[in-house]
Amino acid sequence: MKPKTIALAMLAIFPLVATASDNEIRSLREELQRMRADYERRIDALEKRLAAAEAPAAVSLPPPVAIPPAAAAPGSASGFNPEISLTLQGQAKSMQDIPERSISGYWPAAGDHSGEKRGFSVDQTELGFAASIDPLFRGTARFAVVDNQIDVEEAHFSTLGLGNGLALKGGRFRSEIGYINVQHPHEWDFADAPLMSKALFGAEGYRQDGLQLKWVAPTELFLQFGAEIGRGDRYPGTDRNGTGPGAGAVFAKLGGDVGTSHAWEAGVSYLATRAADRPAHAQDTDPAGPNQVEAQFSGRSRAWIADFVWKWAPDGNARDRSFKLQGEAFRRSEDGTLACSSGVAGSPCLGATGVLALGDYQTRQSGGYLQGVWQFVPHWRVGARYDWLSPGTKHYDEAIVFAALDPAGSLFSTYRPKRSSLMLDWSPSEYSRLRLQYARDTAMADVTDNQVTLQYIMSMGAHGAHKF
Amino acid sequence: MRINSRLLVGGVLAVLAAPALAALNIFATVPEWAALAQEIGGDRVKVFAATHALQDPHRIEAKPSLIARARSADLVVATGAELEVGWLPLVLRESGNARIQPGRPGHFEAARLVVMLEVPARLDRADGDVHAEGNPHIQTDPRNILKVAEALASRMAELDAANAAAFRDGLKAFAQRWQANLARWEKAAAPLKGQPVVVQHKSLTYLLHWLGLREVATLEPRPGVEASAGQLGELLQRVRKQPPRLVLRAAYEAPRAAEWFAGEAKVPLVILPFTVGGDEAARDLTTLFDDTVARLLQGLK
C-alpha cells in the first residue's frame, strides 16, 4: 500500500485527526516524509547492489549501502532511555607520604581527598544520565562511584522552555561561581584541582542543593546573570538544619569573540554562607603534652571570585593547534567566633562543657591560579599552571586563643602556599586522554613535595558537549 | 578620557534593540544553510552563520558568542544527524530560548529531509567517528539542497506569516535557478562518471554519489582518525595496480596526508570547497557547485 493511501485511511478512521493542530499535521507530514525516505533508501540500496553486481571487480571498498540504523528503533520503549555516560579515571602518583595534608594558614575543607593516594589508584568512576523529561524539563544525574560509596554529584532538573533567556535549575548541581567550579574532574586540564578551589571549597568544588536562575541578555555580546540559593551545608558553610536557604550566590559573565581566532569569557561571582561549629584539627597547649583537639569556627563566610578564560585557535579551528589561558582569583572574608573542644582531661579546651569559647575570629584571605594549555600538534597538549595563596590577615585575641591552642598550628601560619605544575597529555580521540603531570607542591610549610602523576580519563557512551 | 554619556546610552540601547528588528532571525550552524536561508529569505531575514568553511564542523565549541546569538534567534537551521552534537545541544540549553529547542517549530534539521547514506550497521566507537543516523555531510549533493530548501521555506513561512508569500516566491525563484543549474552541472560533469577517486575523509560521499564517482579508498583508516605513515604506505600499495584518477580533500581538512598520498601515487590532488566560503570562488551556493565541478574536471585533465 502506498504511504499516501495509508495516511488517507488513517484520516478517515480517526476523526480526531481532522481537528489536528498544526503540530499534528507537521508530525504526520514528517511521518510521510520518513516513510517516503525509507522507500527511496531501499530502492537506492537495491539500485546500488545492482550497479555493484554489474561493475567490474576493482580494489574498491564496498559501495555505500544504506542499512537501517542500528540505534533503537523509534516506537520501542527503550528509545526513551536516557543518555548514559560512564567515565573511567585513575592514576599512578608519586609523592611524599604526608599523613594529613593541609594548606598552611587555611582552614581545612572537609570532604574526601580523591587523587591524593600514593601509587596506583582508581579515582571516582562517573556515571551520568540525562534526558528530556517532557517538553518542559530536562533531567540530569551524575554519580561518582568510589569504593563502598556512591556520591550523588549532581541530580537536578532544568527548564527547557522558560523563554526570554531564562533558565531555572533545581536539585543538586555544581555551582556556576567562578570558571572551573562547574567542571567535572574529567574536564580539567590538570590532574588535580587548583589550590584555590581546594582552599575555598575542598577538592570536590562547591555544589548547591537548591535552585538556580540564569538569564542571558538579548545582546550580541554574551551577557549572563545568575543567582543560586541552596542548603549551604558544604564547606565553607555547614549544615545548620534551617528551613530557609543556607547559602546564596550571584554571578555575572561576559563573553564574545575577537575576530575568527579568539574567544573569551570573564566573570565575577559572590558566595555568601554561614558555618556553625565548623571543625578543624588543632593541638592544644596542655602542659602535660599536646592533645589533638577540634577548633571550631562559627560565623559568616563570603567569597568573591573573578575569572577569565581566553582561547585561541587559528581560524577558529582547534584541530591542529590551539591555546587556552585561564585564570581565577578570589578574596574570602570570614567573620565570627572561634572555639575549641576536647574530651581529654587536662586539655584547656575541655572547659566546663567540653567546649571553650575563644572570642572573635576574622580572616581576609586571597589567592588564585593562572594556567595555559598549548595544543602544539593534533592530539598533544602541554600546560603550565601556577597556584598561589596569601595567608591574608587574621584578627583574634592572641592571649585568649594561644592560651588554649598551639600557635605553631597550621591554622595560624603566615606561610605563603604555592604550587607549580607542568603537564603533557595525549588524546587519541575526544573520548580518551592520557596525562603526565609534574607538580612542585609547597602548599604546606616546610614541605617541598615533588609530585608525578600519570593519569587516564576514558569516556564511554553518550558524551555531551562540554561548556566553553 | 571623557566619555560622551549620550553616545554611550545610545550605543547600549542600539545593542539592546538590535535583535528586536522585525526580520526573521535565523541561526544557521554551518555556512551552507546560512546561504540557503538567505537565498529564500532575501532581505526579510537576518542570518547568522555559527561556523565558517575552514572550521572542522565536528570540532566546534559552545562559545559564549554562539549562546548570545542563539538567545535571540527565531529559527535554528542545523544539519542534524549528530554533526553538531558536540556543541549545539549545550548552546540551545544555555540560550534560554524556548522557540529553538528540539521539537519546536524554531528548530529545523536538514538531515531529516534527505536519504542518508552510510548509516552504520553497528555502533561501536572502535570504528571511529561514526554517526548513528548516517553520514551528515549531506550538502555536497545539490539535489539535497533543493529538498532542504522546500522544507526550510515552508518552515520560515510558518514562523513568519507576514512574509510567507515572499518566502514562497524566494523558494520558487531559487528552485527554478537550481533546476537549471543542476542540469548544467550534471551535463558538464558527465566525464566524471565512474572515475575512481581516493578521498581523505567521508566528507564527500554525497558528492561522489551524485556525480557517480567511484570511491576506491579513504585515507582515514576510520572516520575522524588520521592515517599513520604505515597505513598510508599500505594503501598506496593497494591502489598501485589500479591507480585512482583523483585524490580529493575538503578545504577544511588537514592537508598533509592527501598531499603526500597524491604526490606518491602521482595522482592530481583536488581540494574542494566543501561549503560556501571554502575557497574564494565559492561565494554562494551556486558558485560552490560551479567551482566544485570545475575543479573536478580540471583534475581529470
UniProtKB/TrEMBL annotation, chain A:
<feature type="coiled-coil region">
    <location>
        <begin position="18"/>
        <end position="56"/>
    </location>
</feature>
<dbReference type="InterPro" id="IPR023614">
    <property type="entry name" value="Porin_dom_sf"/>
</dbReference>
<protein>
    <recommendedName>
        <fullName>Porin</fullName>
    </recommendedName>
</protein>
<keyword id="KW-0732">Signal</keyword>
<feature type="signal peptide">
    <location>
        <begin position="1"/>
        <end position="20"/>
    </location>
</feature>
<keyword id="KW-0175">Coiled coil</keyword>
Automatic annotation (TrEMBL), chain B:
<dbReference type="Pfam" id="PF01297">
    <property type="entry name" value="ZnuA"/>
</dbReference>
<dbReference type="GO" id="GO:0046872">
    <property type="term" value="F:metal ion binding"/>
</dbReference>
<protein>
    <submittedName>
        <fullName>Zinc/manganese transport system substrate-binding protein</fullName>
    </submittedName>
</protein>
<feature type="signal peptide">
    <location>
        <begin position="1"/>
        <end position="22"/>
    </location>
</feature>
<dbReference type="InterPro" id="IPR050492">
    <property type="entry name" value="Bact_metal-bind_prot9"/>
</dbReference>
<dbReference type="GO" id="GO:0030001">
    <property type="term" value="P:metal ion transport"/>
</dbReference>
<keyword id="KW-0732">Signal</keyword>
<dbReference type="InterPro" id="IPR006127">
    <property type="entry name" value="ZnuA-like"/>
</dbReference>
